[in-house]
Amino acid sequence: MNTISKEKFYTTIGSSIVTKRKELGLTQTELANKTGMSRTSIVNIEKGKQYPPVHLLWIISCALDATPADFFPENNSGIYVIEENIPLKNVILKKAKKEDITEESISKIKSFVLGM
């Protein structure tokens, strides 16, 4: 089973906040003022260094005329890390089968990854 990389998850959220903030033409200071947070907190959240609790994410999203879900990564966004005890080739083959890839393509994938 794959697990979520906490760092990548919050970096993605921070990046989404930056994008939305810039779309609205706000500075970090202006967003801080709208949320009652410090500019330092906004900087750290945007960089993925500070993990905002749900209530702060809600406050930020309201200030940016968005919802908290707007900042969440999509399922296939690369936030997953492969557990070390599962060989990469097994993960690739499992994913290929799950994505309903044709048997011919799976055979080609097997040929490629088994050579890894």
From TrEMBL:
PANTHER family: TRACRIPTIONAL REGULATORY PROTEIN-RELATED-RELATED, TRANSCRIPTIONAL REGULATOR. This is Helix-turn-helix domain-containing protein. PROSITE patterns: HTH_CROC1. Keywords: DNA-binding. InterPro entries: Cro/C1-type_HTH, Lambda_DNA-bd_dom_sf. Gene3D superfamilies: lambda repressor-like DNA-binding domains. Coiled coil: none annotated. Residues 17-71 form the HTH cro/C1-type domain.
